[in-house]
Design brief:
Strand content: 15-25%
Strand order of the largest sheet: 6-5-4-10-11-13-12
Order of helices and strands: HHHHHHEEEHEHEHHEEEEHEHHEHEE
CATH class of the domain at 174-331: Alpha Beta
CATH topology of the domain at 174-331: Rossmann fold
Number of strands: 13
CATH architecture of the domain at 174-331: 3-Layer(aba) Sandwich
Largest sheet: 7 strands, mixed
Number of helices: 14
Structural class: alpha/beta
CATH superfamily of the domain at 174-331: Vaccinia Virus protein VP39
Oligomer: single chain
């Protein structure tokens, strides 16, 4: 066990013990906020304790027990995480990893992530003003309502049916750019981009704008309801759509397999487990086979957000990465083991990648691992 990693994680867990956040640390656009009776009673106890005793460090016995259990399990449950910590190339990424692990262990009641600041909520409020018309698309997933939005005022001359929070993440915070390094890790004009996990088309349009008229975006999305929204959004933007090719296949480590899934909107995932079977089947394709079949002259950037299938898809892109060494922006938040297995796999390719990490919400979703070959 890496002592520096263990000390910093332990310090972060202890630092957050006195906290007890509520709706101010919750994103109601993603999931309605509900406070249990037990939570409400403890909140009242905190208020009384602070008012009478001026004590801002109230800690429950159960909190201490939780901390002791976490610390006792660290030696076994975080095997591989110290290696990821050492692999990260800057202090920001390493500190963020510690905070994200604390958040995953202790929950939103205890840990507030770095993005939860007034400036973020101002962005969200501003994004809600970008609605162009009263046209909407109702989504069965969590009863989402996608609003018709126009984004030219934030530098993207396009229209889209989307959520204000999604606009904030994709287009304002620019989820698939790492701006904390020089040069930035991002798609460039003229790039050929693999957009793995097109969902409703926001990233397709973001990349199409970014790569310009001489670039190309290959968007992979297999879920039928998502494809309906994606194509409707592309139809709103005919000039950008010329740069986008949609491939209705599921990315995997082998082509030609039929894997089951169930409809779940943007959270649709493949069931790589015979014990879990969905009612529908998706045909798989590897990035390597796609790139070879298309005769692509290069792949400059790969983005992946495919609900836990990222490692499999990366394993099916090995030859592409060996040949072109593309920059990477890979989601690693769907499964705890992705924090270990994905960076380990990429590092073991020995392609000279350096790694960074960023996070784009106030909840556990949208952690992105960035990678690029070392300059020079």
């Amino acid at each position: 066990m890496d002592e520096t990693f263990l000390i910093k994680l332990s310090q972060e867990l202890i630092r957050n013990l006195p906290h007890w956040y509520g709706s101010d640390n919750w994103d109601s656009e993603v999931l309605p906020y509900r406070e249990s009776i037990k939570d409400r009673i403890f909140t009242y106890k905190r208020i009384i304790n602070r008012t009478i005793f001026n004590d801002y460090s109230l800690v429950r016995t159960t909190d201490i027990n939780q901390l002791l259990e976490i610390l006792a399990l660290l030696e076994h449950s975080v095997e591989g995480l110290p290696a990821f910590y050492r692999l990260l190339n800057d202090d920001y990424s390493r500190s963020l990893l510690i905070m994200l692990l604390a958040h995953r262990k202790m929950g939103y009641r205890k840990v507030k992530l770095p993005l939860n600041v007034p400036e973020y909520w101002a962005m969200r409020k501003f994004a809600s003003t970008l609605v162009k018309s009263q046209n909407k698309i109702n989504i069965e997933f969590r009863d989402f309502v996608l609003q018709h939005m126009e984004l030219s005022t934030i530098g993207f001359p396009l229209e889209i049916f989307f959520l204000p929070g999604g606009v904030t993440i994709t287009f304002i915070l620019k989820q698939y750019e790492y701006q904390r390094s020089l040069p930035a890790i991002k798609a460039q004009p003229g790039d050929f981009v693999i957009d793995a996990g097109g969902c409703w088309g926001d990233t397709s349009l973001y990349f199409a704008h970014t790569v310009g008229a001489h670039g190309k975006v290959y968007t992979f999305e297999f879920e039928s309801d998502n494809l309906l929204v994606l194509h409707r959004n592309l139809a709103l933007n005919p000039e950008l759509s010329k740069r986008i090719e949609v491939i209705p296949s599921a990315l995997w480590d082998k082509s030609g397999e039929e894997i089951s899934y169930s409809l779940n909107g943007p959270a649709t995932s493949l069931f790589n487990n015979k014990e879990k079977q969905g009612s529908l089947r998706a045909s798989t394709l590897t990035i390597d086979e796609f790139v070879k079949g298309k005769g692509l002259p290069r792949v400059d950037f790969i983005k992946m957000d495919i609900e836990g299938s990222e490692l499999k898809a990366l394993q099916g892109a090995q030859q592409t990465m060996y040949k072109f060494k593309p920059q990477l922006a890979i989601s690693i938040y769907h499964k705890d083991e992705d924090f270990i297995e994905i960076p380990r796999y990429l590092d073991n390719l020995n392609l000279g990648y350096e790694f960074y990490m960023d996070h784009f919400t106030i909840y556990r979703g949208e952690t992105i691992l960035f990678a690029r070959t070392r300059p020079g």
